[in-house]
Design goal:
The chain is α+β, with helices and mostly antiparallel strands. The protein contains 13 helices and 35 strands. The longest helix has 23 residues, at about 240-260. The protein starts with 8 loop residues before the first strand and ends in a 13-residue tail after the last strand.
């Protein structure tokens, strides 16, 4: 029976690894007869520094640091008196009290007991003597002759608790009669019978038709609307027209020159010859596959990204293939085994080149556009994590030391020579966000803000003096989006002793680029998504994917050739901010209920209380019949947006929420992901749950895909064309 524990002890759960590390294995080192173990305080403190939040002693961290003695008493609770298998004495008085109890005195070795103990032996099992009854049991037992059927019933969250109305229905063809019959084997005497009678109105059919008795002939004449001579003269003299002509004149002259040099209407295919046979192969072909038995076996790919500056390098985030119940059951095993992000090279498809250690499964990650060595990721536990791979750039580029010289291997030719170094380096994360200030749900999308601007705490766009990407945005289904700043706060100079202590407490040799953010990183701005209908008692919208507006100020940030040191960047002073007046702060969000929302990230201030709050979305539309897994702008037309969810995909125009420009027909299989082609504006790639990929060419046909090809037997979770 579980009892409330006193204030001077604390129940603990110790994993098998911790028990073996401290020599306190249950029923081996510690038994019911000898349940006490004195732990060295320094060893416990070192374990908490090494494993941080993963340490089993982290719940009693402050008690251990304040403990005055050098040894702490650990007691093995075999009967689970206080709910756990171990408990820790928090004070020296409690340690003495527990050690000097009568039970503890009897457990001390070398003492002679006053009287003999009564030995109780448990009954020993006897051998089974078969007499033929097992055959009857086997005949009467139920045996499954087929696989169990699985049914999945889903419904949108908006339909929960909705009012239900019933109507009359005439049953003519839908009637299925089950005629009763008498079974001679059974005779049941009817003792009680329940009858129900309901009165309904008599149904009648009626119709009405309006006759067109007075037809009339009508016609409409259109005439073009033109400008007057005065308006034409004003337009000819306008400064706006002169700027437009100066802007487009070079492009028009270049096109005219090309048309004069070469006839664009000549069919080059026919000029090659009349008898050109053979059918063009449009099927997708596998170029390369990557696999590793240690890191990627029995796992699912959650996100992939190509390295922005090194050709032939692709980063892949791996997650455990387990349901929520399986994760809860195997939580101890998952905590001891860190998830990884693998860097693969086309020169070695068997062994990864680099491993990024993660605090939890990563669902989305992005390279920093200003510095590809900086990577940000969003974890399943709601934490935001940062990596710095500057120390391993030479390995990714193929540079190896040999006799005092460096031999560079071209990554564009994908050299297949065997690597000299067999071990794969593991990069520990530089910083993670504060647990209490982050998301409370898995982070499903993360994006860097452009380097041309930054956002204040009220969501106002400001000029970015660093000309580098210093802020990012994350979203999670806990009804919020968060803006993060990776720069340090403007504080005094850090003492040299603190820097030395920080170096000593760095067991993984992690770069100190973002050491100022580790476990203290908090969001700069939090944007919630309240419901438009305030009268409905429903939760806010739950975002899964988002798409920011393209930069209205089309200018490029100027950076020098020297790499930017992010550890020296500081947050811009709030005394003299330089706002961007003509900047558009609206963006699109896709939710888990299939809704597409158009909203603004700027915060508003309450006139009465002065508190800041997120404004309601401008418009919303139910776009799909399932959760939206893709919200992406076209790389050629920034005002065209692709959304994928449920069994359809749709194209939308920025600012037009009355309906989609195009909605695909319902597919037989669920759509899981979508992506625009980077070379052809009208081509889309859509991934399905059955492992097939659809290629849509909207210029060829829009009612069905141009090509459908099976890629794998599992669901396609991510598509990322090579740029």
């Amino acid at each position: 029976m579980k009892m409330m524990h006193p204030d001077y002890i604390f129940p603990l759960v110790l994993t098998s690894a911790t028990q073996e590390l401290f020599g306190c294995r249950a029923d081996e080192d510690l038994t019911e007869a000898s349940p006490y173990k004195l732990l060295n305080k320094e060893d416990v403190v070192q374990d908490m520094k090494t494993r941080a939040a993963v340490s089993d002693f982290s719940p009693v961290k402050q008690f251990v640091l304040d403990y005055p003695d050098d040894e702490i008493l650990l007691v093995f609770d075999r009967e689970f008196t206080y709910g756990q298998s171990f408990y820790l004495a928090l004070t020296p008085e409690a340690k003495e009290r527990i050690l000097h109890t009568p039970q503890a005195a009897e457990a001390q070795p070398g003492e002679v007991q006053g009287q003999e103990e009564l030995v109780v032996k448990s009954p020993e099992p006897q051998a089974w003597i078969p007499l033929g009854s097992e055959l009857e049991i086997e005949e009467d037992s139920t045996k499954f002759s087929r696989d169990k059927l699985r049914y999945r019933v889903s419904r949108a969250r908006r339909d929960f608790g909705a009012p239900v109305s019933f109507s009359d229905h005439v049953a003519v063809d839908d009637v299925h009669k089950c005629v009763s019959f008498k079974d001679e084997k059974f005779t049941i005497k009817l003792m009680e019978k329940e009858c129900e009678v309901q009165a309904i109105p008599i149904l009648s059919n009626s119709s009405a038709q309006t006759q067109w008795e007075y037809p009339k002939n009508m016609c409409t004449q259109y005439e073009p609307r033109g400008f007057s001579m005065e308006e034409k003269e004003n337009y000819r003299q306008s400064e706006k027209l002169r700027k437009f002509m100066n802007t487009v004149a070079p492009s028009v002259f270049r096109a005219l020159q090309q048309n004069h040099i070469m006839d664009v209407f000549v069919d080059d295919w026919r000029t090659l010859g009349e008898d050109v046979g053979g059918k063009v192969d449009t099927h997708l072909k596998e170029y390369q596959s990557f696999t590793d038995l240690n890191y990627s076996k029995d796992k699912t790919i959650s996100h992939i990204n190509w390295h922005p500056s090194i050709n032939g390098i692709v980063a892949v985030a791996m997650v455990e293939r387990a349901s929520l119940e399986e994760r809860i059951d195997n939580s101890t095993k998952l905590l001891l085994k860190h998830p990884l992000v693998l860097f693969w090279s086309f020169s070695d498809p068997i062994k990864p080149q680099l491993l990024l250690e993660c605090p939890d499964d990563v669902l989305a990650f992005e390279f920093c556009p200003s510095d590809p060595n900086i990577i940000v990721g969003g974890c399943m536990n709601g934490l935001v994590v940062l990596w710095d791979i500057s120390a391993h750039v030479d390995r990714l580029q193929g540079t190896r030391p040999s006799g005092g010289r460096s031999t560079s291997v071209s990554t564009e030719t994908f050299d297949l020579e065997e690597k000299r170094k067999n071990d794969v380096p593991v990069v520990h994360y530089c910083a993670i966000s504060a647990i209490e200030s982050g998301h409370k749900a898995p982070i499903t999308d993360v994006q860097w803000l452009p380097e041309t601007f930054e956002v204040s705490r009220m969501g106002v766009p400001l000029v970015n003096p660093n000309t580098a990407c210093v802020q990012l945005v994350t979203c999670a289904p806990n009804c919020s989006l968060m803006f993060w700043d990776i720069r340090a706060q403007r504080v005094g100079v850090q003492p040299l002793s603190d820097k030395k202590q920080r170096v000593e407490d760095n067991p993984y040799s992690v770069l100190d680029t973002f050491s100022h953010l580790n476990l203290t990183w908090k969001p700069l701005l939090k944007v919630t998504l309240p419901r438009i209908d305030s009268s409905a008692a429903r939760l806010p919208y739950s975002p899964l994917k988002f798409s920011l507006q393209h930069n209205c100020r089309d200018r490029l940030a100027e950076r020098g050739e020297t790499p930017l040191d992010y550890s020296n960047l500081r947050v811009t002073s709030a005394k003299n901010p330089e706002p961007l007046g003509d900047f558009n702060t609206k963006f699109y969000v896709g939710t888990e209920d299939g809704e597409l929302i158009h909203t603004d990230w700027k915060l508003e201030k309450d006139n009465d209380s002065g508190r800041l709050f997120s404004c309601k979305p401008l418009t919303y539309v139910i776009a799909h019949d399932g959760l939206i897994n893709t919200v992406q702008r076209s790389p050629f037309f920034k005002d065209i947006i692709l959304t994928v969810g449920g069994w359809t995909f749709a194209l939308w125009k920025d600012g037009v929420m009355e309906g989609a420009l195009m909605q695909s027909p319902c597919s037989e299989t669920k759509y899981t992901v979508g992506y625009w082609s980077l070379t052809r504006p009208a081509v889309l790639f859509i991934g399905r749950a059955d492992g097939s990929m659809e290629v849509w060419d909207l210029l060829e046909k829009s009612h069905e895909p141009s090509e459908v090809q099976n890629i794998t037997i599992d669901s396609i979770t991510c598509i990322k064309p090579f740029f």
